[in-house]
Amino acid sequence: MSSDATEDGFKERQRQSWNDRGIGWDKRAEEMAEMARRLNEPLLDLVGIAAGQHVLDLASGAGEPALTIAELIGDTGHVTATDLAEGMLAGARRRAADRGLGNIGFEIADAESLPFPDAGIDRVTCRFGLMFFPDKLKALRECLRVLKPGGRAGFMVWGPLTDNAVFQINMAAVQEVMGPQDETFLEMPFILGQPGMLVGLLEQAGFTGVEEQVIQARRKAPGDQPFWRTNLDMSFGRLWMEAGAAERDAVEAAVVRRLQEYREGDHYRLPVHVRYAAGGKPGA
After folding, report:
1. Model's pTM, two decimal places?
2. What is the pLDDT of residue 2?
């Protein structure tokens, strides 16, 4: 079998996996809005979002940061939100309409073969998406192709799994109760998490002036609320939502047991690690 056929099969599995998770992402999007805002800010600052720009957002999922960008660039700008999975964009389309955003469009697109002309985009953003692209360098070079000379692209990725406790705990609990899952897919969000990996990819692709920023902290979480359910909905989608009550209860009990090492009085302190990098296209 050719490598192209293998890659196409992998992308189709990803498309289906994200379509299955789209329900969970849509369900939780509003309650995640404040966290999304905090995570978006360093990315948008690094890439330099400003009024009047034409922006391309890759792997937009439930809509961030594309919806925030639409509000920042104003009526003279335009942002195109893209994703490989239509199921992920459905909620984003509805939220854009609810907010009356007329400067945002949506398109199903493969980041490795973007359906846009050369040198027409001011900025490219990608929030927690690059890790899932099979050929990351190809996708980054596509970003360079569509950027105007002097344009910038910025990317956000998770740090290592061991530094992101909610993911690690939920993955372990689900597999303890529900059996082995697709570990390749579950661990993929963290494969660019080591220092230097994201910067190195951007420089190898041809970006210049690459800048990096890191958020590594211990976030406070309530000790009396099932905050972990949001991550279960978003990480496991249809598998989690269609599980029986007994299975769900058993998973949650396993989550609570694992959380105890992070307990501090009436709350938890949970490690989180996010990495950002942005670079420019030569020839301004």
Report:
1. 0.90
2. 45
